[in-house]
Amino acid sequence: MQSEDFSEMPIVASCKIAETGIIIMKVHVDNGSSVDIVYEQCFDQLPESIRVTLQPTTASLTGFAGESSWPIGVLPLDVDLVDDNDDSLVSQAWLDFYVMRTSSCYNMLLGRTALGKFGIVSSTIHGMIKFATRKGVVTINSTSKVPICAAINVKCAVQEAAEVTESMVLVNPAYPEQKIKLLVQYMDVFAWCENDMTGVPRHIAEHQLNVNPALKHVVQKRRGMAPDRVKWLCEEVTKLVRAGILREAQYQSWIVNPVLVKKPDGSWRMGYHQIPMAQEDIDKTAFHTGKGKFLGYLVTEQGIQANLKKIAVIENMTAPRTVKEVQSLTGKLAALTRFLSKAAERQLPFFKSLKGWLKQKSFVWSSKAEAAFQEMKNLLKTLPTLTAPIDGKILYLYISVENEAFGSVLIAERDKIQNPVYFVSKALT
Predict the structure, then answer these.
(1) How far apart are CA 345 and CA 425, in angstroms?
(2) What is the pLDDT of residues 110-140, one digit of tens each?
(3) Treating both helix axes as pointing N-terminal to C-terminal, what angle do 308-315 and 323-334 enclose, rounded to 10 degrees?
(4) How far apart are CA 286 and CA 251, in angstroms?
(5) CA-to-CA distance for 97 and 39, rounded, in angstroms?
(6) 15, 35, 42, 329 from 335: Cα distances, Å
(7) Residue 411 and residue 31: Cα distance in Å, rounded?
(8) Secondary structure of the chain in HEC code, one letter for each residue
(9) Residue 5 Cα distances to 126, 156, 395, angstroms
(10) Could you give phi then psi for residue 330, rounded to 5 degrees?
(11) Which residues neighbour 224 within 8 Å (Cβ) at sequence distance 6 or greater?
(12) CA distance 6 to 384
């Protein structure tokens, strides 16, 4: 290798929490760390069924400068490393992550413990990792250097960039030598995928909408779009939601139709994502996504319905026999809790099975857990259709409080009939 082919960037990949299917982006692979870490901002976004397995610890971690940090606790996770291009090439391992209350641009850190269990061979200078699976060896390129879906090595990436920039117009004729060097040397500055576009701090730059507060809120009726546009829009929005650039909006006072602009290459463009919107203006940026499945739900003119495929998966499940299978069950139910009345209270026997395993290291699926499991299956057969509220109309909130959980439902009245808008519940732990 030539010196210019070396990568100086950290190795950043992604991993999946087994069974739940949750994908964690921005995972730092660091062979200089003796432990595996989950940062608090990532831990807080995990489902409750995973967070309740957090175990206390009195251990402290020492940094390279000798400073000590105390973890919130230890979180056991069943983790998958998967080839981006072939889901059958997967390696799986149970890891104990220290949850750290420390700000970081990463969500997770895989240290030497994880590298040993997965059999990972990492190369910082190549910007990639390799590990063996039952079906072959997997090579994953760092997402901080090349596009996440690229199956090419760093040397090829540099050569391709050089070929492209040769045909480009000079950015500044006063510095012709920077035509290639600038773009290749600072490849990490560019956004190669959606997940690279979320790190601009608000104090540096943010968009603002100078809207007269006296103006009436704008709520446009949904306009129809061609099927190919609807398909592209839903796929693009889903990617941006996963990257944290967009979020699902439930009850907006401002809503418009999206505008798609056709690019010279025939693809579509929608919006500008690198700079965040000012907090006070976010509510004014909501838009329709069209009829169809979005974020796992079926959006129709009648309302929001649960995804039948997700319901069928749970209905076809057998009673859990391991902690991993209980976590899989609660993870799948998490996607349906907005349709379920008293979801947390109904899942208490599941949570108690997980806590019992943490205390005694012995898994027990009790008769109460089995009864709750069968009751949950029956409830999934009659899930309600959720109703969207109308601006200016009265909403009703009903609250139920028990010893170990509480629940609530937001209700909208249509033609003297009360329809659910959203169910919320929480276990009191």
Answers:
(1) 8
(2) 999 999 999 999 888 888 889 888 888 888 8
(3) 150
(4) 10
(5) 9
(6) 20, 31, 18, 11
(7) 52
(8) CCHHHCCCCCEEEEEEECCCCEEEEEEEECCCCCCEEEEHHHHCCCCHHHHCCCECCCCCEECCCCCEECCCEEEEEEEEEEECCEEEEEEEEEEEEEEECCCCCCCEEECHHHHHHHCCEEECCCCEEEEEECCEEEEEECCCCCCCCCCCCHHHHHHHHHHHHHCCCCCCCCCCCHHHHHHHHCHHHCCCCHHHCCCCCCCCCCECCCCCCCCCCCECCCCCCCHHHHHHHHHHHHHHHHCCCCCCCCCCCCEECCCCEECCCCCEECCCCCCCECHHHHHHHCECCCCEEECCEEECCCCEEECHHHHHHHHCCCCCCCHHHHHHHHHHHHCCHHHCCCHHHHCHHHHHHHHHHHHHCCCCCCHHHHHHHHHHHHHHCCCCCECCCCCCCCEEEEEEECCCEEEEEEEEEECCEEEEEEEEEEECC
(9) 8, 9, 61
(10) -65, -30
(11) none
(12) 57
Domains delineated in the chain: 3-151 (2.40.70.10), 157-194 (no CATH), 199-295 (3.10.10.10), 307-427 (3.30.70)
Separation CA 321–CA 185 (nearest Å)? 52
What one-letter code names the amino acid at 420?
P
The whole-angstrom distance between residue 167's C-alpha and the CA centroid of its chain comes to 38
Structure-token pair, residue 338:
């907005």
Contact in structure between 420 and 409 (CB atoms under 8 Å): yes
Confidence (pTM): 0.42
pLDDT in tens, 142-197: 765 433 333 222 222 333 333 433 444 455 566 666 555 555 555 556 665 666 66
Amino acid identity, position 294:
F
Here the tokens at position 257 are 């139709």
CA distance linking residue 349 with residue 370, whole number of Å: 8
Separation of alpha carbons 273 and 246, rounded Å: 9
Q: What digits encode the pLDDT tens for the residues 408-425?
A: 999 998 888 899 999 999
CA distance 338 to 409: 9
Structure tokens at 42: 């990532």
Phi, psi angle pair for 187, to nearest 5°: -60, -30
CA atoms of 101 and 90, how far apart (whole Å): 30
Distance CA 397, CA 410 (A): 5
Extract the tokens encoding 261.
């602009």
- Main-chain dihedrals φ then ψ at residue 171, nearest 5 degrees: -65, -40
